[in-house]
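Subject: design request, 163 residues
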């Protein structure tokens, strides 16, 4: 077990990627979305037993992100324990523990898929007219088909993502 700025990390040799792949437990749904916006591959575990969560994490070589002290403290479980209460503090705590070099705004915040570039012409029927007239860059999720662009909220999101 490794102590890292208030975050407990149980390390397993098979979880060795430059930017770790994550399995975020049900207690941290909002954090899962924001970790995706930061650029981490973060699958959200909505329900099921701790044993099923652990098996899923091992099968997919993912690091568990949790607020559950007992789960994070289990022998042989690769986990990060998030102690922070607020979302901003949770994001900062996770980023400090995870490291890596995530690429912000490259994953769908809803389903975790890698976003694809979307031409302006192809975006025309997918976004509101005002957005199409004022924006030049678009991305689209190949799984859930959501379209994304740098809207009015983007600067605030970028500040939160970049810490």
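Subject: RE: design request

Done. Sequence follows.
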């Amino acid at each position: 077990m490794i102590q890292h700025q208030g975050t407990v990390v149980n390390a397993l040799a098979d979880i060795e990627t430059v930017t770790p792949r994550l399995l975020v437990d049900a207690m941290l749904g909002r954090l899962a979305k924001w970790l995706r916006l930061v650029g981490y591959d973060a699958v959200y575990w909505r329900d099921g037993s701790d044993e099923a969560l652990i098996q899923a994490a091992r099968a997919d070589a993912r690091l568990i992100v949790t607020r559950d002290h007992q789960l994070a403290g289990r022998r042989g479980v690769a986990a990060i324990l998030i102690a922070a209460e607020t979302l901003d503090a949770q994001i900062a705590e996770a980023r400090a523990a995870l490291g890596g070099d995530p690429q912000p705004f490259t994953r769908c915040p809803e389903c975790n898929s890698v976003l694809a570039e979307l031409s302006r012409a192809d975006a025309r029927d997918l976004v509101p007219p005002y957005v199409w007239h004022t924006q030049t860059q678009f991305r689209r999720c190949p799984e859930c088909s959501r379209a994304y662009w740098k809207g009015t909220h983007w600067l605030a999101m970028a500040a939160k993502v970049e810490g």
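The first helix runs from residue 29 to 38.
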